[in-house]
Structures are given as structure tokens and as C-alpha cells.
Amino acid sequence: MPVWLREHRWRQTASAVYLSLPVRGLRVTPANIFCTDRYLKVSIPPFLFEAILYAPIDDTNSTAKIGNGIIFFTLYKKEVAMWDSLTLATANKEKLQYLRENAVLKAHEKAKEETEAKKVTKQEHKKYALEATMKLEEAERKRIEDLKEKERQKVTEELELWKKQQDAAEKQKRVQKEGQLHQEVVQLKEKKQEKINKTRIPNEGTSETRIKATKGCRGSYSMFSENLKEEQLPAPRSTATIKINFTSRVFPTALRESRVAEEEEWLRKQAEARRTISDDLAELEDLKEEEKNPDWLKDKGNKMFATGNYLAAVNAYNLAVRLNNKLPLLYLNRAACHLKLRNLHKVIEDSSKALELLTPPVPDNENARVKAYVRRGTAFCQLELYTEGLQDYEAALKIDPKNENVEKDAEKIRQLIQGTTQDS
């Protein structure tokens, strides 16, 4: 039986009630105090103080101070008025019990609302943090792109300047070469003229000699001019701007060194896992990072199965399926656990799901398909559905005709079916 704390003092104003409760020698914590708008309770086993208040109070803003062996309550009234008494003395026992239960229900509802509000606030904070991170990443990406664009412009300007310098140097060389050729032509002409002047005979054939020499000179000059035209360099090519494009990449490796199909599959699986975790229950937030990896959970379940702890293995496979429901081996291994636990309908369900995911049928998944048919057929036979079980065993034999164990089990099922038919 509780020991009731009867000694207390209170006073009031039009807007508040001030209550002091002596608790000398008792250790009081905020957890010992329970208060709603009409109900106040202080429970320090075996001591108990309880009060059904005269009128509603604002329990959100009301306070309680603990110190010097006294709990001092400041209770703010919802309506400005003077109370006739601290507690509701005219109520009968049924009404008091109803007020207590109603206070507890209101407290539970309020706690639930606060929990939901905290959850919503936490989600909003996560969303804000994600948006802030995305903005930072976008700003960083933009900064890197700006730096690349500046470097690209700088390289382009340097290339244009180098081309202009090369054109100027080529033009200067061409002018120098043309000057040298012109000097050589003049020197050659002067030498031929001197030779003609030396071989000329006076007073005889002067005009013919002059004409022939002139013709010869003209012929030499014409031939040299043609050779000069042939030796001239072609005009330089016109300038152009080189445009460089960079392929956007999620992975740090270059595109020529990557394996695009595997990377896209990895990205798809990661996005699906993130969606699954974000949409899942709040209890997944308490898991460690490795416990959020379906492959790690599958290995953990395999170890539990090997030690004979089938229930723990089922729990590991269940969590792995919640994180990624597209892995057929999770259903196949869980079917083996259920078979050990004789959860036969679940064996049939998981084996069927594994066979649904093991498509298309290829040589790489032959072994897994054989196991799925055998486990489902075994469950059918233990449920005395021998026809369905035989169908699954025959399907397994079509995949692996040389499997002697499956052939023996299938023969036993045939004999059971024949014996059942003969008995009927």
C-alpha cells in the first residue's frame, strides 16, 4: 500500500497556483513527477501524492523546482479566475477514476505527438543537410568547371600566340630566301654578261653575236625563273580554334579505362539500396554500417545456419531482404532455414520467389535453380502433396540429369504415389 503525502501548502493568484510539497529525506527526480492539465502526481515509492486539480492548467508552461527537501510547483491557469480549492473535492470515485485514466491517455497522446514532431524535425534536418551538401557540391563543381574553362582559354590564347609567332618566323624566312635568290640571279646575270663581253669579236658579227648572246641570256633567265617558281613554299594553313570537351564522370577513372556496364549496375544497386533504407522504418537507423550491407548479412546468415542457429539465420536473411529484395540467394538460403524449422509454406513461398528471380535460365544459375526446385519439392512432399513435389524434382532433373541424389528422391516419390494409388 502506498504512503500518502498529505502535508502541502498552496496559494494562488488570478492567473497561477503556487504549491509546495515537503519531501524531506526522499530523493526526487523529474521522472517522479507526472502532470497534465487536470492531474498532478508525485510518486516516490512507497510515498505518493495525487491531486485532481480544481480547473485546467497550462501544463506546458507550468514548472516544478526540486530543492531543500521541497518540490515547489508553479501552475499557470488556463482561465483567469480564483479557485475555491486546490483539488476537485465534489467528484465521486467514478469521476476521479475517469479523470485519472483520461490524464494518462492525454499524456500518452502528447508523448506520441512529441515523438512524431521530433521525427519530422529530424527528417527536416536531414533534408536540409542533404540540400546543403548538394549545394556545396554544386558550387565546388562549378568552381572546378570555371577553373577548367579559364585554363582552356589560357591554353587557347597561348596556342594562338604561338601560331602567330610561327607565321611571322615563316614569313621572315621566306622573305630572306627570296632576297638571297634575287641576289644569286643578279650575280649570275652579271657573270654571263661579262663572259659575253670577253668573247665578242670586234667589227664582225657584232649584231649577230649581241643578238645571240641576248637570246641566250634571256633563255637562261627564263629557265632560272621557272626553277624559282617551283622552289617557292606553299602558303600556310588557315588558323582554327581547338575545342576540348570533357565527359562527365562519377568515378575517378578515365572513361577509356572503365567498364561502363558494371559501373551503371553498381550505381543502380546503390540508388535502390538508398531508396530502400530511406523508406524503411526508423529502427534501421540504429544499425551499424556493415549491418546495412545485404552481402554482409547473407554471410552472417550462412554462418548461423552452419552452426545450427536457424532462427538467427532467418532474422539475418529477413533484414537482408528488406535492404535488397532482388537477390535470389537470400530467398534460397532462407527457404533452407524454414525447411529445417518445418515452416513448409514459407519454404514454398521463398523457393518460388528465388525461381522467379533466377531468370533468364543460364548455366551460371543452374545449381541455384536445382536447389530451389528440390527444396520446394521436399516441402510439398512433407505436406503430402506428392504430385506437386514430383513435378519439382523432375524439373530439377531436367536441369541436372546426372544428379544421383535427386534421382533417388524422385524415385521414392514415384513409389509413394504408386502405393497411394493402389491402396485407394
UniProtKB/TrEMBL annotation:
CDD domains: p23_DYX1C1_like (cd06469). It holds the Pfam family CS. Residues 3-87 form the CS domain. GO terms for cellular component: dynein axonemal particle; extracellular region; neuron projection; nucleus. PROSITE patterns: CS (PS51203), TPR (PS50005). It is found in: Cell projection, Neuron projection; Dynein axonemal particle; Nucleus. InterPro entries: CS_dom (IPR007052), CS_DYX1C1 (IPR037894), Dynein_assembly_factor_4 (IPR052004), HSP20-like_chaperone (IPR008978), TPR-like_helical_dom_sf (IPR011990), TPR_rpt (IPR019734). One of its GO terms (biological process) is inner dynein arm assembly. Keywords: Cell projection, Coiled coil, Cytoplasm, Neurogenesis, Nucleus, Repeat, TPR repeat. TPR repeats lie at residues 370-403. GO terms for molecular function: nuclear estrogen receptor binding. Residues 105-172 form a coiled coil. This is Dynein axonemal assembly factor 4. It comes from Rissa tridactyla. The lineage of its organism: Eukaryota, Metazoa, Chordata, Craniata, Vertebrata. The gene is Dnaaf4.
